[in-house]
Amino acid sequence: MPSPIDRSLLMPFADDVPRTAILAALCVAAMAASLIMAPGAGGLLAAGLVPVLVAIAAWDARLFLIPDTLSAAGALLGLAAAALTAGGTAADMTSATLLAATRGAVLAGLFLAIRTGYRLLRGHEGLGLGDVKLAGVAGIWLEPAGMVAAVEIAALSALAAIGVRHFLSGRTFRPRARLPLGLFLAPAIWIAWVLERTVMPATWP
Fold this sequence. Notes:
By secondary structure, the protein is mainly alpha-helical. It has one domain (4-196). It contains eight helices and no strands. The radius of gyration is 18 Å and the shape is globular. It starts with a helix and ends in a 9-residue tail after the last helix.
């Protein structure tokens, strides 16, 4: 007989109808905003990314788990967006795809180094491999400035959540308390994508 976590993996938030409805409404709104801000292939693929990021955030919040299939879907959508918004020639598409893949590998490598260093210094895990893979998705979708913005947004929102949680609960702070980073990094990727097309200098459509 499967364990409770195994059953949750099959349908992680079906038992929370109000929260699911809120997530669905936010998802639809963000998809529409993506299409408005970037008409064409880039916006369409960004709209497709939104439910992937929402699912990642929900899974990590509920189970401290980011499924590889969701990370792979986000990465493939990002590579397709890089190729289809690069220009008309095959060389341009190939170059843009390789550049996006390189950015993803660099940011994932940085997160992996942080994960390894933290484990060596503290003797326990600080980041999961799912967080490392999600960082790779961020690198594929975002330019360097956007990557920095996404990480900062995720870190600040996570710290704010910790502060609010401890203030409301009245509990003492526990340095080793688990925190689902994907819950904060996943939406930060889309927010940074929006910022790249609004307040940051745009470097690709």
